[in-house]
């Protein structure tokens, strides 16, 4: 009897954990979809053990959220966010995020530098390749990526024409290359309208596109402030005073 009772309790505990975890994931995904309004799907995953039971006590644990087709600054992004120690009040211990811009969109944001060239990546650097000039000569431009808290800078380092590579700094010594030199000046693109507590930290050219890295400060999760929802399962969470509102993580 004791064995049967223990097995039943374990089964009920596991079922409750899975049910509350599923509801919490759905709530987080719905809130993210409402704020981001992406073209594609939004997924939320609770990655801490017994996340559902944690949520009943006001703690969710670590959360991963991904969304495809988010529109920002006339650019379409695929976004992923990882937050640590999230609570049902909408707070977290901070985390990280990435936004990936497809290479088909990169060239048009670079102005003259990317005119007529196809963007790609190699060892983290941005690579622009294609035909340039009146003769349509094959050109490959390699550029270094750097960031500040709110801007991305693309700095061309080398240009290759017909297999011969020249440092961009050396173009100043070639009078006939003045037009190319002007087109390859560093270009800075502002990354604005970031949520409170989110800061741009890195950029690299990945396999699928230009990847921007962000840090998320501890405190209210981005977009959570001011949003009230009932605790998971629709009842008052264990250990919380009656009547207390909860913000969606």
Kindly describe this structure.
The protein has four helices and 14 strands. With 249 residues, the protein is α+β, with helices and mostly antiparallel strands. It has two domains: 2-94 and 218-234, no CATH class; 103-190. The strands form three sheets. A six-stranded antiparallel β-sheet has the order 1-2-3-5-13-12. Strands 6, 7, 8, 9, 10 and 11 form a six-stranded antiparallel β-sheet that branches. Strands 4-14 form a two-stranded antiparallel ribbon. Strand 6 (117-122) and strand 7 (125-132) form a beta hairpin. The longest helix has 35 residues, at 2-36. The chain is elongated, with a radius of gyration of 24 Å. The protein starts with a helix and ends in a 29-residue tail after the last strand. Residues 221-249 are annotated as: Disordered.
Largest sheet: 6 strands, antiparallel
Low-pLDDT residue intervals, each spanning 5 or more residues: 1-17, 224-249
Number of helices: 4
Distance N terminus to C terminus? 41 Å
Assembly of the depicted chains:
single chain
Protein name: DUF2993 domain-containing protein
Organism: Streptomyces capoamus
Region (Disordered): 221-249
InterPro entries: DUF2993 (IPR021373)
């Amino acid at each position: 009897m004791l064995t049967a009772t223990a097995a039943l309790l374990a089964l009920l505990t596991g079922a409750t954990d899975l049910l509350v975890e599923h509801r919490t994931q759905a709530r987080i995904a719905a809130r993210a979809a409402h704020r981001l309004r992406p073209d594609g799907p939004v997924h939320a995953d609770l990655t801490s053990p017994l996340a559902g039971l944690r949520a009943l006590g006001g703690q969710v644990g670590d959360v991963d959220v991904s969304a495809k087709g988010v529109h920002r600054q006339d650019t379409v992004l695929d976004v992923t966010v990882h937050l640590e120690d999230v609570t049902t009040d909408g707070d977290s211990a901070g985390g990280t995020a990435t936004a990936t811009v497809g290479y088909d969109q990169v060239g048009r944001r670079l102005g003259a530098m990317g005119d007529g060239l196809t963007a790609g990546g190699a060892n983290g650097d941005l690579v622009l390749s294609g035909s340039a000039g009146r003769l349509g000569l094959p050109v490959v431009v390699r550029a270094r990526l750097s960031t500040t808290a709110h801007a991305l800078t693309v700095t061309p380092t080398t240009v290759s024409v017909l297999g011969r590579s020249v440092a961009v700094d050396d173009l100043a010594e070639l009078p006939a290359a003045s037009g190319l030199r002007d087109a390859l000046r560093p270009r800075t693109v502002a990354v604005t309208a970031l949520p409170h507590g989110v800061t741009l930290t890195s950029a690299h050219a990945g396999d699928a596109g230009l990847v921007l890295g962000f840090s998320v400060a501890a405190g209210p999760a981005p977009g959570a402030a001011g949003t009230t929802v009932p605790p998971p399962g629709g009842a008052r969470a264990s250990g919380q005073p009656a009547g207390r509102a909860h913000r969606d993580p």
